[in-house]
Structures are given as structure tokens and as C-alpha cells.
From TrEMBL:
Species for this entry: Trebonia kvetii
Pfam family membership, one: P5CR_dimer
Catalytic activity annotation: L-proline + NAD(+) = (S)-1-pyrroline-5-carboxylate + NADH + 2 H(+); L-proline + NADP(+) = (S)-1-pyrroline-5-carboxylate + NADPH + 2 H(+)
Similarity annotation: Belongs to the pyrroline-5-carboxylate reductase family.
Protein name: Pyrroline-5-carboxylate reductase
Any one GO BP annotation for this protein: L-proline biosynthetic process
Positions that bind NADP(+): L5, G6, T7, G8, K9, M10, A65, V66, K67, P68
EC number from the UniProt entry: 1.5.1.2
Biological or metabolic pathway of the protein: Amino-acid biosynthesis; L-proline biosynthesis; L-proline from L-glutamate 5-semialdehyde: step 1/1
GO CC annotations, alphabetized: cytoplasm
Length: 264
């Protein structure tokens, strides 16, 4: 049985993805904090609702999807009950596998995962790293769980805070960009709904080109940028306003915040 401990935005995205991928509800359980949430999840997915202690005793795989700030309390609750025959997967930003391992008296296998909200449409980017007691088999099992939600790659754990900043938080930067482009459409007199449709399809099309062609983004951008044309006039303004430097600083700040959340 797979138990998901904490079923907010990401926990539910994982739960719904596993169900869409054909995993029987009987193999899944959730741990929630509010009784109303228990009722909602039981009705929507037909999954069992357990206490954290029951989940720690019954599940083969425990996926912990609470906020980093709630991690210590959750681990205190389940710590003494989890054994090395189980697998613990954490999706919390900043929290290291060694922080989790230290909360268990036994040598429990832990895998750290950073996914993102496009899991809701099976287009997540999930990056996974093993803790010191996780084997190849544990990594393969984790890949199997996350593969139906989108792409999965392995990275060394020291890169996890950077991955959190880049792909974990990444969808928010894209939505921010879309908001800004739609505002520009409004400024130019376009109805909001039309502007949003145009920008959404443009982002989707550009992302599809990047993925399908495998080309460097500079090559794809060059193909849009005609000599003395409109695009270069826009690029000059982006450069003048330091947008590239802003991205570098923003993503570095997200990486640093991840480190802080992990108590580094
Ligand atoms: N939102 C995002 O885009 C991403 C979030 N994450 C990570 O996923 C984790 C969850 O994030 P969200 O889903 O956004 O947060 P959320 O606040 O939507 O969900 C957290 C859930 O955990 C529950 N919870 C807390 N303590 C609990 C306990 N003791 N027992 C049972 N349930 C408990 C809360 O009631 C809440 O439903 C975080 O650690 C975050 O760093 C990772 C990747 C992306
Ligand atoms: O903002 C956060 O802390 C979480 C982690 C990655 C995306 N959202």
C-alpha cells in the first residue's frame, strides 16, 4: 500500500495522478488533518483514510507531502514505527534525506523528490535523489510512482535546492510571465480573454517546440527575430530592464530560501 501523508495541492496531485494511471484505490491511503478533507478524498477517490501511525504501520511506501515547516512534527509522529522494509519518499522543499533519516531509529530508505504542479495534467517535472539507505530498487520504485505524472530524472541530492528553485517553483514564473504578457495585451487595447488565449497558446507552442526540436532556445529565438523587425525592438527593452539578471537573482533567491527551509 502507498500512503500519502498530507494531501494538499501536491499530495492530491500525486493521488489523482496515480488513480488516472490505473493504480487501484485499494492500494492507496491518505493521511489528512481535517475530517472534512477526509470525507472529500474518500468520496472523490474511494481511498482509505488512515492516521499517520496507522499509515506508518500498514504502508510499504510512505509519501510525505506536508509543508517543510510541518515535517519535524510528522516525523516525530511516525518515526519509531517505520522500519527498513518500507520506503519513505519526501517531496518537501529544502528537507534533506539525512534530516529525515535521523528521525528514524532504524536505517530506513529515504528518497527525496521535487515535483511540480503540472502533475495535475500529467506533465510534471520530477527530480529524485536517494538518501544513504536507498537502493537502486527504491529509486526504480519511486520512478514508477512518478512516471505517470510526467518526466522523471535522477539528480545528486546537492542539486535538489537548485531543482526546487528551477522546476519546483518554475510553473509560478511561467504564470507570472503570462500575466505580464496579458497585461501588455490590455495596454495595447486587446480584450483580456483574447489576450490570455493568445498568450497561453504561444507559451504552449513555444514549450512544445523546445521539447520536440531539442534545439537551443537561442536558435528558436533567432528564427523569430527578423532584422530591424518587431521582436528585436522588444528584446532590447527586456535587456535594458535587466530581465535576464532578474531571473538569475530570483531563482538564486528561491534556492537560498529552500536551504533556509531545510535548516541549512
Ligand atoms: N505547491 C507546489 O508547487 C510544490 C510543493 N512542494 C512541496 O510539497 C509539500 C506540500 O506542498 P503543498 O501541497 O503546496 O502544500 P499544502 O499546504 O497544499 O498541503 C500540505 C498538506 O499537509 C497537511 N498536513 C500538515 N500536517 C499534517 C499532518 N500532521 N497530518 C496530516 N496532514 C497534514 C495540510 O493539512 C495540507 O493539506 C511542501 O513540502 C512543498 O515544499 C513540492 C513541489 C511543488
Ligand atoms: O514555494 C514553495 O515553497 C514550494 C516548493 C516548490 C514549489 N512550491
Amino acid at each position: 500500500m502507498i500512503a500519502i501523508l498530507g494531501t494538499g495541492k501536491m499530495g492530491e496531485a500525486l493521488l489523482s495522478g496515480l488513480i488516472r494511471a490505473g493504480r487501484p484505490a485499494a492500494e492507496l491511503a491518505v493521511v489528512v488533518r481535517r475530517p472534512q478533507r477526509a470525507k472529500e478524498l474518500r468520496e472523490a477517490y474511494g481511498v482509505e483514510v488512515l492516521t499517520a501511525i496507522e499509515a506508518a504501520e500498514k504502508a510499504d511506501t510512505l509519501v510525505i507531502a506536508v509543508k517543510p515547516q510541518d515535517m519535524g512534527r510528522m516525523l516525530d509522529e511516525i518515526g519509531g514505527r517505520v522500519t527498513p522494509s518500507q520506503l519513505v519518499i519526501s517531496i518537501a522543499a529544502g528537507i534533506t534525506t539525512s534530516f529525515i533519516e535521523r528521525r528514524f531509529p532504524a536505517e530506513v530508505p529515504v528518497v527525496r523528490v521535487m515535483s511540480n504542479t503540472p502533475a495535475l495534467v500529467d506533465e510534471a517535472m520530477s527530480v529524485i535523489s536517494p538518501g544513504s539507505h536507498a537502493s537502486e530498487e527504491h529509486l526504480e520504485h519511486t520512478e514508477e510512482l512518478f512516471a505517470p505524472l510526467g518526466s522523471v530524472i535522477r539528480i545528486p541530492e546537492y542539486q535538489q535546492d537548485a531543482a526546487t528553485a528551477l522546476s519546483g517553483s518554475g510553473p509560478a514564473y511561467v504564470f507570472y510571465l503570462v500575466e505580464a504578457m496579458v497585461d501588455a495585451g490590455i495596454l495595447l487595447g486587446m480584450p483580456r480573454r483574447t489576450a490570455l488565449e493568445m498568450v497561453t497558446q504561444t507559451v504552449y507552442g513555444a514549450a512544445t517546440m523546445l521539447r520536440d526540436s531539442g534545439e537551443h532556445p537561442v536558435i528558436l529565438r533567432d528564427a523569430v527575430t527578423s532584422p530591424a523587425g518587431t521582436t528585436i525592438a522588444a528584446i532590447r527593452e527586456l535587456e535594458k530592464h535587466g530581465v535576464r539578471a532578474a531571473f538569475l537573482a530570483a531563482i538564486e533567491a528561491a534556492r537560498d530560501r529552500g536551504r533556509e527551509l531545510g535548516g541549512a
